[in-house]
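S.,

As promised, the magnesium ion run. Input:
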Amino acid sequence: MLEVHDLRVSYGPIQAVRGVSFSVAKGEIVALLGANGAGKSSILKAFMGIAPRSAGRISFAGEAVERADTASIVRRGLTLVPEGRRVFSQLSVLENLKIGAAANRQLRGRTLENCERMYALFPKLAERRDQLAGSLSGGEQQMLAIARALMSEPRMLLLDEPSLGLAPNVVDQIFDFLKALQKQDIALLIVEQNAETALDIAARGLVLAQGRIGKEGASAALRADEELQRLYLGAG
Ligand SMILES: Nc1ncnc2c1ncn2[C@@H]1O[C@H](COP(=O)(O)OP(=O)(O)OP(=O)(O)O)[C@@H](O)[C@H]1O
Ligand SMILES: [Mg+2]
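Predicted complex:
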């Protein structure tokens, strides 16, 4: 589904991503872990064409997209749920959802039907459809950010720290929901500080250190890795 070869992201003199290669298969869930500043968000933003892609190849669904613009990437079926959720606080829940479908003219005819689909998935959003997004709780805003991304009918979602700042029971709800997306064959690449939770639903993990992949492997193997336990999994 997504294949990345030797991706590099530089912000002027700062090399945030220094040659990263990996792939994510159709319907697969992969965790992207690593310390603050390791380059996780830069990788997701580079996929969407919102961080400078200084070198490397990115292919999505068999087509090269390393020069494609954001709207065309969304139309191809790749969407980002950004760090910090970024819902439009001054717009209603419904208006936020409609924005998720805006990049694709072909979807406009299905916008209302897709909104109803989101309300069925997230009943809390249905009750609050006319409420301003800024008045939702953190967990509800995260649900709205995910629902907004799903409005583009993606084949793969990139999620940047979906658990950030949320209570453990809300995190569980959100991850149960993400896991359920697999039944619709939607692939997920999840960036998380909360490594344990991400590895619970992911088949595999990649651990980024200073812009490179330091370790990668099956979730169970990464969980058992002593160095990772010390660094990211909160064990002694
Ligand atoms: N727009 C930018 N301009 C300049 N430097 C940037 C920019 N965005 C990120 N960086 C730098 O690139 C490096 C990687 O940042 P990035 O946000 O990708 O890390 P991250 O792994 O997502 O970190 P965090 O866990 O804190 O979100 C950091 O050193 C950061 O300071
Ligand atoms: Mg980040």
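DSSP finds ten helices and ten strands in the chain. The mean pLDDT is 92.

- D.
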